[in-house]
Amino acid sequence: MAYLDNFDFDIFISYSHIDNERKSGQALGWIEQFYNDLTVSLWQSIGTKDVKIWWDDKRLDGGVMFDDAIADGIKKSAIILCLNSPAYLKSKYCKKEMELFTSSAQSHPLGLKVGKHSRLFNVLLYNLPFTSWPAELSGTTGFPFHDAEDKDDRGHPLDLQTPRFRQQLQDLTDSLVTLLEAFPKKSEEVEEDDTFTIFFGDVPDSLRTIRKRTITELQKSGYRIISDVPPPYEAAEHEDVVNDRIGQSDLLVNLFDQFPGREVDGDEITWYPQKQGKICLSSDKPQLIWVPGDLDISEIEEESYKAFITKIEEGDYPKEIDFIRGIKSELPGQIIGMAEQIKLKAKRPASGNKVSVLLDTHYNDQLYALELCKNLLENDIQPFINPQEDDPKKNINILEDRISQVNNLVFFYGKVSGEWVSERMKAARQYIVSNDYPIEQFYVYMLPPRKDPDDKMLQQRFIKVKVLNNSDKPSLDSLTLNQFLQNIKAAV
Questions:
Q1: At a CB cut-off of 8 Å and minimum separation 6, what does 114 contact?
Q2: What domains appear along the chain, each with residue ranges and CATH number?
Q3: Total-model pTM
């Protein structure tokens, strides 16, 4: 049992085994001596032996897979101590440990900080410039355990028998105790966290930077991110954990490109991004799937992976999925837009099962609105008409009042300018967002004269816009009308 109620381990020590190699005449390596001294120091400072520190005394070499036991220890630890050194910076295992702790902590209700205190500690065994520190440690205060005398001297780890080491150990202990005491105890009432949660699937190395940058942007906007799978790496256990993470999430996000990523342990024709994507597709949770705009699927070399991506792009799935071919810089905004729609949908009142539609139209297009009303009533959909004059900002209060009564908004774009329609949509969007009304999508019904269905002026932030192009037909086209009715009914 650990000192902290909600964790199996209080502290995880992440280090390179090179730094624990014993020199001639030494009974213990530097890291093991440090571990022993820190343990005793913490026990004495807190007054109990309940403080538990996880450290790995096995020797991993380049042919050994990242140990699931280590991964489990990382995810169940409250604090990570990174013993930063040249060997640490070059170790791919240390890098994995750091990334796993960070992603796991980000998925925890506490996040990476408890109050103002970071859960990551940067213990410097050498005087390394901050520009060489792992990105996860940027902004942390380093605890120097080296003997360098000036900024240009790299130095070496302190002799553990010296007063200088003892002082540094006590400083580190004091900071750890302060943080441990700041963690909420089980006896304290902790409010249930209702933060919107987004699951991010694994990605190939080519997409790790955009994934990391996007996650950072979403966290800054207040979203909780789950991105800590794998590990486990073994196929059956991995699938169980993915399903568990999906169950905790409100939105599932998967990023793909021409590279399949890491192979699933024991399965040479399946990769972790693909496997997680398939598991997500079997879920009924809302999903966003993103690929680069310039992705050429025909150039994908792995046939099973190519077939998987092709099937997704062709829309061969019956779920609520947004498939986006896009550019990297727009991805955070696209995810936020979908998340906001999901939030609005969740607020739909129970009476919302009765479908209602507001038709926002100019007098010049009112005949089309009346014809659409007739079709809506025949399909048991309640229509409301909001006719307007030439000034798009006129009678906005009437529009606002009627928005509160409906599930869907339709803006007629016929014998008016694009600016007129855009102004009406902006006013409606602002009112919906301000009042958290459950409207996830706008419809724009294009009427004669002929128009461009890809008109960028019609796009709105945080609200999807579905364009129905009837501008090349003098009357309501049956195919377009049926498409609209199906969309309206499917949204309920």
A1: 179, 182, 183
A2: 9-182 (3.40.50.10140), 197-346 (3.40.50.10140), 350-490 (3.40.50.360)
A3: 0.47
